[in-house]
Amino acid sequence: MPCSTPAAGSLIERRRRTSSPSLGTFPLFPADPLCLERGQGAHVWDTSGKRYLDCTAQNLCISVGYAHPVTLTMVGEQMGRMQHCTTLFHHEQPVAYAEELVARMPEGSGDWVVHLVNSGAEAIDLAFMMARAHTGHFEMVSLRNAYHGLHFGAAGSTAFSPCRFATASLQGFVHAMHPDQYKGAFGPGAGITPYLDELRRTIFSSTAGHIAGMIIEPIQGFGGVVPMPPGYMKEAFRITREAGGLAICDEVQTGFGRMGSHYWGFEAHDAVPDIVVLGKGMGNGFPIAGVIARREIAQSFTQVRFFNTYGSNPMAAAAARSVLKVVDDEGLQANALARGQQLLAGLHRLQQRHSLIGDVRGTGLILGFELVRNRTTREPVVEEGERIHRRIRDAGVIMVKGSATRNTFRINPPMGITAEDCEVLLDVLERAFAAG
Ligand SMILES: Cc1ncc(COP(=O)(O)O)c(C=O)c1O
């Protein structure tokens, strides 16, 4: 398929020539990739000047919107004053950010401290290292269908064969069955009991019986928007602690109000973890990630020297502070809730008209719908999905597909998306499905 403009064609060719092919293993529209130039609010423009509603938010990184004036001002001012300051020194920005972040943890939930790094996978690794240092145990449990990043340590906890090398990888990770209520191993609507029993068996049979921790995403995002069913996370964390481990919650996608109903995903499950991992939308596009850990856990991680050159960068901290401020000042958590309800209602109407849509799920602005051949067998639909995906793009909306079978469309726009934009999205989806 030809590229949309000569400028796009040239960019694609230049990237092919000198950028590593390893940067292209998650292709979106491989035959005709999108070449983007700028963004504003919830929209992006490609090199031909065509505007798109961005329902990816760049993998949920653009939390409060492209070119948000508060982010621009706070980062710009910090850049002009001092663009970097390592943790060898003290600097106001990361300290103020840690204070503001800790103040957003549930009241009375503990004595929390913050450690900042640069990417989600680094933060996941840090959580694992802290858990191992604190417990003295090695093995870490994660769920099948989980995505926690692809750097060396984090990659061990991610549970997708397309993301794993067939050579020795880091040891010490076991995967328990994920409690998917739509098409999980124990059948539709099986509830949580068989999955909790299986977790106990996994710890008994695949670990030394004591573990360093268990990590859970409140909604498995890349895995196809699979929410943890009520009660699972709380009980899984109880089992984890019984086995000597720490409860780790991966809030890289679900944090900062995107769930709408709660500021943190774990709050929706009445389950307070021991370590919370943050990333993505935390910096509204600026690379920053980190962990919030109970003080005594972080203290255990001082036995050896640990340093991360760019961790606690003041520009990144300024960007992250802008997110906290805008989410509060503009009521973006409430907007995520309202827009999520609007979209869920529209998607359910769409599901009634189009039998290909087997399931609609999610919360706030972490939504997905799954295409199936037959609503009883739930066999994934792929080819029709590709055609529908292309029509959605042509109509000016960008979405990605998730899950191992790539048949779940994901809706994760910037959190300031308007009611009008949501109507546009629903209209685009209706027309894309109606075209057959
Ligand atoms: C839930 C979750 N955790 C961790 C990560 C890893 O983040 P990063 O890509 O910044 O390493 C991701 C990335 O998609 C994610 O979705």
Nutshell version of this structure?
The chain is α/β, with parallel strands linked by helices and 436 residues long.
Explain the layout of strands and helices.
Elements (H helix, E strand, L loop, with lengths): L5 H13 L17 E5 L2 E4 L4 E4 L2 H4 L8 H13 L10 H11 L9 E6 L2 H16 L4 E4 L8 H6 L15 E4 L16 H14 L6 E4 L2 E2 L5 E2 L4 H11 L3 E5 L24 E4 L10 E6 H6 L13 H16 L2 H22 L3 E7 L2 E6 L11 H12 L2 E2 L1 E3 L5 E4 L7 H16 L2
Parallel strand pairs: 3-15, 5-6, 5-7, 7-10, 10-11
Antiparallel strand pairs: 1-2, 2-3, 4-12, 8-9, 11-12, 13-14, 14-17, 16-17
User: Mind telling me the C-alpha Rg?
Assistant: 21 Å
Structural class estimated from helices and strands: alpha/beta
Bound molecules: pyridoxal-5'-phosphate
Strand content: 15-25%
Classify the oligomer: single chain
Largest sheet: 7 strands, mixed
Q: Provide the CATH architecture of the largest domain.
A: 3-Layer(aba) Sandwich
Name of the CATH superfamily of the largest domain: Type I PLP-dependent aspartate aminotransferase-like (Major domain)
**H and E order:** HEEEHHHEHEHEHEEEHEEEHHHEEHEEEH
Give the beta-strand count: 17
Distance between the termini: 21 Å
Number of helices: 13
Q: How many domains, as an integer? A: 2
* Principal-axes shape call: globular
